[in-house]
Each structure stands twice: as C-alpha cells, then as structure tokens.
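Notebook entry, structure prediction.
Reason for the run: the old model in the group folder had no record of what sequence produced it. Starting over properly, with the input documented here first.
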Amino acid sequence: MADSNLLDGREMLEVRWHGRGGQGAKTAAMLFAETAIEEGKYGQGFPDYGPERMGAPMRGFTRVSNDPILVHSSIEEPQVVVVLDQTLLDSVNIVEGVPSDGILIVNTHLEPKQIREKLKLQDMKVYTLNATQIALDTIGKPIPNTVMLGALIKITGLFDINDMETNITKKFTKKFGEKVATGNVKAIRRAFEEVLSE
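New structure, fully documented this time:
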C-alpha cells in the first residue's frame, strides 16, 4: 500500500474512473476532489457524459494538486484508474494511456494476480476489492462507488481516511439521512482495511 502521499513529487495526481451509469462514478470522482479541497488542496471532479443510459459504460475524472489546476480537459494519461464494474474489463480498454508505474484498482472478487493475467499487464500496480459485496453488506445496495473511495485513499495516501468519513457523513446525512451516511462510512472503512495488493 502507499508508503507516502502519491502527490509527493508530482505536479498533479490524475484519476480516471470507469463504471456504468448508475454505479456512482461521477459522485465518487467529485467526492474525492471535494475532500481534497477541504484538506487545503486543489481538486476537480467531473464526469464524461455522452449518450449514456443506466448501465452503459461511462467515465469520471478527478484531479488533485497542491497548486491551482489550470487544465479542464478529460484525463488521457491517469496515474490511477478505478474500475467500478469488472465486466468493463472485457469491453473497454481501461488501461489506455496509463504509464508503466500507474495503478489499477478493480471492484472484483478476483485476486490482483488474476486481473494482471487477464489484462496481460507487465507493469503497473494492481489492487482488487470486492466492493459490490461490501456495499451490499454495509449499505444494502450493490453500489460500489463510495466503497472504492476507501481503497483509493489507502493506496494513494492522499489524505486521512477520517477526513473522507467526515465529508461523507456531512454530505450524505443531509441528502440521504443518517442510516445511509453511516452505512457508507462503514463501507469506506472496510475497503480501506480489505483492499488487496499483489
């Protein structure tokens, strides 16, 4: 896992999210950026919309920097790719543009080694997490987006897990109620503790 903050030594950390409509890739991209901003960093979180419908492949993007972010385009060479739905591995080139030292985080029941073999990856760091099961256990719905935030925080070391939990509690309690907020916080914590590396 992260020995240090992935932003250290970089001008900016860019994350590309791959999911399907309705899985919350947009929400996760924005929540990660918002938490970075609340930590005193600069952040952007936005979706890549096309003719998407519920269940169709879609992308989200997050940028985090210690300095103002002047670029506003989609992310073509992300340092980190987060995949919310493992079925996308068969239909979307999710590692396109990722450098050899990049990071791939996949919501799957498979081990990181199995994902590496499936995608024939030589380099890159691969992490896996059964986010859908964690979401079912803690939230009661198979929506993996906030679960994957816990894994992303663990791997990037970008900020403290408690800060994300505070952000989620504040935003989700107001929007969805205390029960949903509490479930999401539990999901994030479990992901932080259970994400697998090779």
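Summary: Strands lie at 12-20, 42-48, 57-65, 80-83, 103-107, 125-129, 196-197.
The old model has been moved to the deprecated folder.
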